[in-house]
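batch job 7 of whatever, protein = Type-4 uracil-DNA glycosylase
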Amino acid sequence: MDVKAEIIKNLLYFKEIGLTSIPASEAIKRLLQREISLEEDSLSALKEKIIHCKKCSLHRVRKAVVWGEGPTEPEGLMIISEYPDRDEDFYGKPFVKEVGNLLDRMLNAINLKRELFFITHTVKCKTPGGRPPEPEEIEACRPYLLKQIKYLRPKLILALGFTPPKVLLEGKTLTLVRGKVFTLKETSLFFTYHPAYILKNPGIKRVVWEDLQKFRKLYEEIFLSN
């Protein structure tokens, strides 16, 4: 049970029935203060909160929360994937084994390295049987992803797969946004297919290559134009 959510629900109920104040024990005050400090502190505090998250049922099937990896300096590059597969869940890292090798080749083809990117998932826990995440699971992780972006302030995001547009572009489908440039405040967003999808559908390699060339051009405009 999400204790904080239950407390908030009860406070809203008290407000609706006309109560303007209620007594709170010291334990309740400490709990609320801890939640506030975690939310308002730092990237490392956010990581700690994500690792121990139980906001949806996926915490019951995960081995590890895949928080992400890569440089955390602001105004850099970021890759946002979909959700961990079985191997990522086992190793606790994004893009491992065959899928990771393909990502490396995709980036190498446009003279970039994965070490330049902070890499994370839209949904941080694996799903049962590798199914797409349910709307409530996406919603549970949405604040975490948006806060990662807030702290990292990337200049450019490469979003891979069908799930990222649902969060970053308010429910739009990958079919509508693939290969196009969008903005989120001061961040440029670029969407294309996930390497795992490419492995299952090799016929799309050509369109992905065209997308990657567009991404490289966008990268040069943002980072190499001065």
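notes: The beta strands are 77-81, 117-121, 156-160, 181-184, 187-192.
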